[in-house]
Amino acid sequence: MNEAFSFRLIASDGAARRGEIITPHGAVQTPAFMPVGTQATVKGLAPEDVRATGAEIVLGNTYHLMLRPGPERIAALGGLHKFMNWPPPILTDSGGFQVMSLSKLRKLTEQGVTFRSHLDGAIVDLTPERAIEIQALLGADISMQLDECLKLPATREEIERAMQLSLRWGERSKRAFESKARTGYALFGIVQGGDDLGLRIASARALVDVGFNGYAIGGLAVGEPQVVMLKIVAEVAPVLPASHPRYLMGVGTPHDVLEAVARGIDMFDCVLPTRNGRHGMVFSRFGSINLSNARHAADPRPLDEQSNHPAALIYSRAYLHHLTKANEILGQVLLSTINLAYYQSLMAGMRAAIATGRFADFHAATMAGWEQGDISAM
Amino acid sequence: MNEAFSFRLIASDGAARRGEIITPHGAVQTPAFMPVGTQATVKGLAPEDVRATGAEIVLGNTYHLMLRPGPERIAALGGLHKFMNWPPPILTDSGGFQVMSLSKLRKLTEQGVTFRSHLDGAIVDLTPERAIEIQALLGADISMQLDECLKLPATREEIERAMQLSLRWGERSKRAFESKARTGYALFGIVQGGDDLGLRIASARALVDVGFNGYAIGGLAVGEPQVVMLKIVAEVAPVLPASHPRYLMGVGTPHDVLEAVARGIDMFDCVLPTRNGRHGMVFSRFGSINLSNARHAADPRPLDEQSNHPAALIYSRAYLHHLTKANEILGQVLLSTINLAYYQSLMAGMRAAIATGRFADFHAATMAGWEQGDISAM
Q1: Of the four listed, A28, A220, A275, B182, which is most buried by Cβ atoms within 10 Å?
Q2: DSSP-assigned states of every residue in A208-263
Q3: Tens digits of per-residue pLDDT, A35-67?
Q4: CB-CB: which of A300, A319, A326 is closest to B68?
Q5: Would you call B153 exposed, middle or buried from its count of C-beta atoms within 10 A (0-12, 13-18, 19+)?
């Protein structure tokens, strides 16, 4: 496999899109959900188990991997795909988001950002050029430009300054990426602009002028109301070219994903299915379920007898409750797996619905299930 | 499946024995190593992954399961096999060992032991009869008598008192077991007597007079030198009937297991492969290896290119080192799996060697590998 990156729009249904991304490591059907492989592992799952949930692409975190084990080491070991034994496509973020959320003593200049590692206190420089170099060392099929992720609320002035800086970093990222001549690999730009619609649209237009293989919307799902996020998505998506994939970074709950697909988004990543799974929470056709709740203690039913994943079929709720209460690793692993499988089945359902012009029906039926809620045992 | 319990001695080589145990849930080839499923899960592994390491039987802990989720609940849910989705045989201990090691405020009488739960402080009574009842509720293929596990060092008087109490509890356990009329299921007696050979032999003879389906040696591997343990095993094993399986409880390292098989033991259980795996330590043909050691950080080699388990073949030492340093769940899971697979391959090697009269050669070759030690990367 070494096909050039491409995106093909297969069908549309309203603003919702059914597409296919081709990468050097294989194809990805969209709308796609990317499990997060923070430290070169989707927490708790072996790669074949990630694949078995239906995932076709995972996300790797540049910030974490640059600090440990280091991109040069991963490159020497054959790249991230080989290192983590995940042959399918990988998208890596640029590290910008974690620099803001995890590191200390950040110093931001036009050149880039300097920070202290949260692991050992080492001083680290990250520039747009270094972010691209790291992602090339990792061997990412899709690289992301470095951007400045602002904490909200912020003044319009601050938001505009950060958005403009991100734009200039986008241009530098593109130059750096092109200098690597990684034929067939892709670079995405990132729309910023906080909660200011005008700045968001200006950012999107300017990025399209620069020209990327795909466009992400960053800096959302950071605490703002869902309605604000969806409004921005709805306004920004049409500004982006229909011929390119659109990626809403760090989003979100199943409902966030459903609504963002309805507004024209093709790609998502989020830690929620694994993080919540490690804490006894599952997402299901009937909304979210807290397995540590005592009502499950004697319940012999599986989590979802209609699931297409064995983990949701084989084990009783009583057993999953027990593992959760006993804080057993297997409970964390099974619930993470069940959540990832549910997200993937949701994506598959949306893809099929869009392809056949039934997205509105699928949307309504999915919402009805979530609103109905989980049915307790007698 | 509901065959009556039986043991068949297939071959002997010196004192080492190759046999087969038949239980209501299937056959177990001996010498056998039983992974420990403390809280109705072998820590970190799904049941199919335990099976894939080669395990044919697991151990369940009566103490843990009686406190959470409770034997009546497990029985209502169809028994332990169904609860944890492990159809093959299960042996349960009697709870005596954990009462001594984990609980507080123990009060020992002729009748039984009263203790405070380490989970919620509840006062719990455990008698020989209740221990048998719990194991019947769990549905164990092999139940163990309740015994008093003494902490060493102790006076000869104390050791003899505890041994005699354990004998009387053994008789009561047998009466209680027979009253349950669990056709085809098995009850094992437990030899006690501390580090006193005379008391050990007296205990063994008295147990044989009572008559059990198999005989365990308890109260060893609790800190005494290996040479003391092996001396007791060597002296006690010949006192036990050749027609019945012999189980050395809570043992041990691969070397302990190898030497105990050489002295006539058929069954083992131990938390070492999973506990050590969760802390970056693996057992291998070349001795134990600490994956957190920096020498593995850039090593592209698999842990053991001759392993018959994918986890030891697919991932590089560098990746396993990374997961260990990053304290990732997947590292704990993979190293636990690799350790269990190594134990099972060691058992399989011993079984094949005994069957063909090559046990001495196998013993020497295995020892030579461990003594050679791990070979570092260039």
Answers
A1: A220
A2: HHH--SEEEE-S-SSSS-HHHHHHHHHHHGGGS-TTS-EEETT---HHHHHHHHHT
A3: 999 999 999 999 999 999 999 999 999 999 999
A4: A326
A5: exposed
